[in-house]
Amino acid sequence: MRTTIILLAAMLMTTGCGSSQHQQAKAEAALCTAIMDTSLARQCRVENSTAEVVIDSDDDEAGREACAKISSGISKFSAKLTGSWQLQIFSPYRTDKEIASCPLHQ
Fold this sequence. Notes:
The protein is an alpha+beta fold.
């Protein structure tokens, strides 16, 4: 996963992105790394201003707690994001919908 993020960031750097676009892409690439470094998530994916995270629980309360802990634990990274961002917490045991959602950056 980390190699994929590094390769994505390298590709974006070589495509001639403008400075603000480059900074945003760099922040997005670092976002999943920061989330995974909290040791609360099993998987992470960033798409359309949303970080989608899988935790090892199917409990809604555990999802809300993880959402709050991840959000506060990566605040220095999320401060670099522009626009509104959401954090969605999913369970590998429940595929119907997320078990929690919270703002990541507004």
